[in-house]
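pls design
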């Protein structure tokens, strides 16, 4: 948990989740989420990404969003805050604007 806070997390949910603890944490964190100011635009995009991390076997995850300073992944088992990873992905092509 301390590594998550050092990495910039505002709150942490710990398993197993209980309804009382979950509601208390979310109520306390709501003002943080509402007033959040992002430094970079996050483009919502869901594409497959292949993730390699040290000696762990490569696995496939799905992007949630991408910005110029980071990427959010779903389905990323076994990754810990601070892990160094190599990503392999192909961004979708943008359609040329009609003139």
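designed seq:
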């Amino acid at each position: 948990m301390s590594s998550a806070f050092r990495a910039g997390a505002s709150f942490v949910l710990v398993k197993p989740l209980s309804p009382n603890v979950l509601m208390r944490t979310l109520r306390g964190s709501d003002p943080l989420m509402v007033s959040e100011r992002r430094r970079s635009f996050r483009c919502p995009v869901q594409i497959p990404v292949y993730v390699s991390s040290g000696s762990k076997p490569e696995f496939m995850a799905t992007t949630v969003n991408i910005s110029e300073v980071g990427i959010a992944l779903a389905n990323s088992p076994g990754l810990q805050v601070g892990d160094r990873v190599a990503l392999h992905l192909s961004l979708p092509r943008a359609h040329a604007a009609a003139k």
